């Protein structure tokens, strides 16, 4: 029996198939304007990639901001529960999850059975999310995936004091005008986001081991800043971006 | 537990009629040679009733503004006047409404005096000073010291002495002698009304619940505005009868009550319907809340035969004027009494004293009651501080946790 999970995020759409304890495959595409189309496209793409027939899929769970739009899913569930299930599927030792996605960031506490015990999310503010990094990369004339490597070369991280993304952007622009080193500015950006995420984690009393999920987990510079702030090492999932979709597939198997 | 199909609460119509009559009487006070006092929601209203002064509540008006979704425009108007968007949305709406005569009833009737008691917050002091200048009317401030742990003898003397000053103020403004017999009667009726209100709220301990916190938010208006008169006493008796009948008939307020929740803080007045259906879609009923029970929380300090003396303490030791530990104790008691599966906290941008200790209360509840706790960030009147999809995701995730725990 094969189960599917579809995660329609604000920036990317992800799909995952599982069979028993085995992950058959995953796929990531940009979300675009229409969440339903993104869901169909990423699902069909994964069918093709894994050579699975649609009729072989027993159940589908959708998640993410576009979860309600995926009308061919059997059930829509929140990304919080899905990230919990996904992390636990990949590594049953995990007790905490820090997920930084396109437009939200969250900290999740799991019990020993892998059930979500508590969670905290950023509220009405994009600071410390993927969007925040996109805006900053843009202001610095870099691609999103360049931020990590750049910041690792910083010698003295700049101090970004604004929490608001828009204000932080103007702060960054004035730093550029003041000819601060780009590496240091980026490291400062990472530290500012890390401070925000770490306070979400302490709000719920996060417990180790903690897995880092979400697209932003690919940014090594940010990870380093976050680990420094938290005071412990984070466990990197193999597929941080696809974790929500994997969890959705796991939950589909329990329907 | 499966209740019979939903049936509307019949008393709701009567309640609306009573509130309409109350506001019409207040609006025509001038023609009937009656005076109007604006008073804070937690203020001692019984002396006003004894003096035949009509009490009017800007906070109840604020709730009406919120429910009719007129809060945003009025808040913006106040901001145009120079008030900060961080200021309480009741205060902003009320201050703006006085100027533009807007809102669902075209503004409150002009006050002859203002009675401000700071047992609910500090904002009311400046808010009422602003209104006293605007309307050029006398203002009485009753200062109730914060009760971190208990009620000190010094506080008792201090607050009691102000009750006499309050009476002196009323005598001066009305040019009438204070009627202590009428005061005793108002006191008796006030206590009786509070006891009956408590009984109304207690009916939701039954499973399935015959009404929800959303109904309590509505029926609350009488104990707030007409406390000390016969009206809430009669009305709540009828309401209790109806609730008891619903319990006997197995009529529940939501079709299939499976989960019971406790709510903290003021409601989101402009999203009551959405919020209520958001929970009932998960077969969850908000059976109780810390807000509406605040109007019967100080009964134990009230002496029926000596209301005037005891009200100093009763009005000082209300829910918002006590320490976080005591607030948490009350929440824990409610979790037990109403047998709830989860606790939903509204971190209310407007109401600082209500929202300030919430993180601590959340921790205490999680540790001692072992029920999941959700915190949502919004505002009671200003919808600009509310994001539907964000709150929806949090409620859905929270309900997934509640369901998982009850499996």
Entry keywords:
heterodimer, A: 255 residues, alpha/beta, 2 domains, five-stranded mixed sheet, 8 helices, 10 strands, globular, B: 407 residues, Rossmann fold, four-stranded parallel sheet, 52% helix, 10% strand
Summarize the structure in words:
The complex is a heterodimer of chains A (255) and B (407). Chain A is of the alpha/beta class. Chain A folds into 2 domains: 1-91 and 238-255, 2-Layer Sandwich (Nucleotidyltransferase, domain 5); 95-236, 2-Layer Sandwich (Nucleotidyltransferase, domain 5). Helix content of chain A is 39%, strand content 22%. Chain A is globular. Chain A starts with a strand and ends with a helix. Chain B has 2 domains: 11-163, Rossmann fold (3-Layer(aba) Sandwich), CATH 3.40.50; 183-405, Rossmann fold, CATH 3.40.50.11900. Chain B has helices at 11-27, 46-50, 58-67, 71-80, 89-100, 123-135, 153-174, 180-202, 213-225, 230-249, 272-280, 307-316, 324-337, 352-355, 358-368, 388-405; strands at 36-39, 54-56, 113-117, 139-142, 259-264, 284-289, 342-348, 373-378. In chain B, strands 2-1-3-4 form a 4-stranded parallel beta sheet, sandwiched between helices. A 4-stranded parallel beta sheet of chain B has the order 6-5-7-8, with helices on both faces. Chain B is globular, with a radius of gyration of 21 Å. In chain B, 49% of the residues are buried. The A-B interface holds A 65, 77-81, 115-119, 121, 123-124, 203 and B 359, 366, 372-373, 377, 385, 387, 389-390, 393-394, 396-397, 400-401, 404-405.
């Amino acid at each position: 029996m094969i189960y599917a999970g579809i995660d329609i995020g604000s920036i990317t759409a992800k799909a995952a198939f599982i069979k028993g304890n085995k992950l058959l495959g995953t796929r990531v595409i940009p979300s675009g304007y229409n969440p339903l189309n993104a869901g169909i496209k990423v699902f069909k793409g994964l069918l093709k990639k894994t050579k699975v027939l649609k009729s072989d899929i027993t159940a589908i769970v959708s998640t993410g901001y576009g979860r309600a739009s995926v009308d061919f899913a059997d059930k829509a569930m929140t990304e919080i529960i899905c990230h919990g299930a996904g992390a636990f599927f990949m590594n049953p030792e995990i007790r905490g999850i820090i997920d930084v996605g396109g437009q939200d960031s969250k900290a999740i506490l799991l019990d020993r059975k892998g059930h979500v015990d508590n969670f905290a999310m950023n509220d009405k503010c994009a600071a410390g999310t993927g969007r925040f990094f996109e805006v900053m990369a843009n202001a610095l004339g870099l691609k999103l995936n360049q931020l990590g490597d750049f910041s690792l070369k910083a010698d003295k991280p700049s101090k970004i004091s604004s929490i608001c993304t828009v204000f932080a952007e103007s702060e960054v622009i004035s730093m550029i005008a003041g000819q601060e080193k780009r590496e240091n500015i980026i490291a400062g950006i990472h530290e500012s986001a890390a401070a925000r995420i770490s306070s979400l984690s302490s709000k719920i009393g996060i417990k180790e081991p903690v897995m880092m999920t979400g697209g932003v987990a690919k940014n090594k510079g940010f990870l380093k800043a976050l680990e420094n702030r938290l005071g412990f090492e984070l466990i990197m999932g193999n597929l941080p971006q696809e974790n929500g979709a994997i969890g959705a597939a796991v939950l589909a198997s329990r329907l | 537990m499966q209740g019979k199909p939903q049936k509307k609460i019949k008393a709701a119509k009567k309640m609306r009629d009573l509130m309409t009559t109350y506001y019409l009487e207040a609006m025509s006070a001038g023609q009937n040679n009656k005076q109007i006092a604006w008073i804070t929601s937690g203020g001692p209203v019984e002396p006003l009733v004894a003096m035949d002064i009509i009490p009017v509540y800007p906070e109840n008006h604020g709730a009406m503004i919120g429910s009719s979704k007129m809060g945003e425009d009025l808040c913006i108007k106040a901001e145009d006047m120079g008030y900060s968007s961080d200021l309480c949305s009741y205060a902003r709406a009320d201050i703006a409404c006085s100027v533009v005569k807007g809102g669902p009833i075209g503004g409150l009737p002009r006050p002859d005096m203002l009675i401000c008691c700071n047992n609910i917050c500090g904002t009311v002091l400046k808010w009422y000073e602003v209104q006293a200048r605007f309307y050029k009317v006398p203002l009485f401030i009753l200062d109730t010291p914060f009760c971190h742990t208990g009620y000190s003898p010094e506080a008792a003397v201090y607050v009691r002495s102000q009750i006499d000053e309050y009476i002196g103020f009323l005598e001066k403004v009305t040019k009438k002698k204070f009627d202590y017999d009428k005061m005793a009667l108002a006191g008796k009726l006030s206590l009786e009304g509070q006891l009956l209100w408590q009984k109304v709220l207690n009916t939701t301990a039954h499973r399935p619940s015959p009404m929800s916190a959303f109904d309590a938010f509505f029926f609350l208006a009488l104990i707030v505005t007409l406390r000390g008169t016969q009206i809430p006493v009669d009305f709540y008796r009828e309401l209790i009868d109806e609730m008891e009948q619903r319990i006997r008939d197995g009529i529940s307020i939501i079709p299939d009550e499976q989960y019971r929740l406790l709510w903290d803080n003021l409601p989101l007045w402009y999203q009551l319907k959405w919020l209520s259906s958001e929970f009932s879609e998960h077969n969850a009923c908000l059976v109780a809340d810390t807000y509406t029970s605040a109007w019967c929380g100080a009964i134990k300090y009230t002496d029926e035969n000596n209301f005037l003396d005891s009200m100093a303490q009763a009005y000082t030791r209300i829910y918002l004027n006590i320490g976080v530990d005591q607030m948490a104790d009350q929440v824990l008691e409610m979790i037990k009494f109403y047998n709830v599966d989860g606790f939903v906290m509204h971190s209310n941008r407007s109401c600082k004293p209500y929202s300030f200790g919430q993180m601590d209360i959340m921790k205490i509840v999680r540790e001692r009651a072992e029920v999941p706790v959700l915190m949502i960030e919004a505002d009671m009147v200003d919808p600009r501080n509310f994001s539907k999809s964000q709150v929806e995701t949090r409620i859905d995730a929270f309900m997934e946790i509640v369901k998982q725990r009850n499996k």
